[in-house]
Design a protein that fits this description.
The protein has about 190 residues and is an alpha/beta fold. Helices cover about 35% and strands about 15% of the residues.
């Protein structure tokens, strides 16, 4: 069995269409301003940089990929799946929160080997980062990789096995970073 990956969609591997050709910082500013109607049109979303190629490398190396959506409603989850198909992402289930579930609840249900998500910079830490919501006894089993929002995953290793080998980031180390500190503030 290959490495099980859970990859967050919005801000990690998908973005609003106005972000094409912009720097990561410009993409974050666009998302903060919330003036572009494309931000609310999930069907118009596009891949972040080389996300499709990177995910295919992982899939071809045997990774089992599931995608975590920010949406809850079944029709929106179906739209996300349609966007993934349109852009040629590797096949994988799109999983979502149900009822009052948190992203951490979904990650615990899926129990991936590796969780890849963005730091929610455009939300100034108001959004909850999935890794911080996972029970401590399961955090040790799930390798968490947090990338800069809209920065893509191109810089990550080309094999899913190498994702497991990267240095684990502890909660203490994570809260030492200003960006993580903002994201985790007020959660405990």
């Amino acid at each position: 069995m290959g490495v099980r990956l859970l990859v967050f969609l919005h801000g990690t591997v998908l973005m609003h269409p106005a972000g094409v050709g912009c720097t990561r910082e410009e993409r974050v500013a666009q998302a903060r301003e919330r003036t572009d109607p494309g931000l609310r049109d999930a069907l118009a979303y596009v891949p972040v940089d080389g996300a499709v190629a990177k995910l295919w490398r992982w899939a071809e190396a045997g990774a089992d990929i599931a995608y975590l959506t920010s949406h809850r409603h079944p029709f929106q989850v179906a739209e996300d799946a349609a966007v993934l198909r349109r852009w040629g992402f590797p096949p994988g289930r799109v999983v979502a929160r149900r009822g009052s579930q948190t992203y951490g609840d979904v990650a615990e249900r899926e129990l991936p080997d590796v969780l890849i998500e963005d730091d929610c910079e455009s939300l100034d830490g108001r959004a909850e980062i999935t890794a911080s919501q996972i029970r401590p006894d399961l955090q040790a089993r799930i390798r968490s990789i947090v990338v800069p929002e809209f920065g893509g995953i191109d810089h990550l290793p080309d094999t899913p096995q190498a994702l497991l080998m990267r240095e684990r980031r502890t909660r203490r180390a994570a809260t030492a970073s200003p960006r993580w500190g903002r994201a985790l503030a007020g959660r405990h």
